[in-house]
Amino acid sequence: MDDKIYIIDLNKYRAQRSTGISKVFTGRDRGKTVREKSEIDKMADKYEKVIIQIPADISSINPSFLEELNKNVVRKYGKEKFMKKIEFKCLGEYDVTKSLDEAINRILHNETAIG
To answer: H/E element holding 87?
Structure first.
């Protein structure tokens, strides 16, 4: 494996439900849990590129989850560098682009509003 690339496999962070493994990533609490367990903040500093791998059967990833997962990296690097450093790779048909854009805009808007 290339030591310049780190892969965060979201499959490892899926919630177990009584009906089976969750097919959604939703909410700030879940985003915070995945951020802490995956150590994305530390890995973004250590590696040139971090790939966030989305399982093939995921049906939804909401902006609140993405906002909490990525907030520190977006704040540190800004949108342009974040987009070069963090790559979302879906193994199926799910397109994270719209939710990710909304999450990044929220992070940057809140940062400017607070700062």
So the answer is: strand 86-90
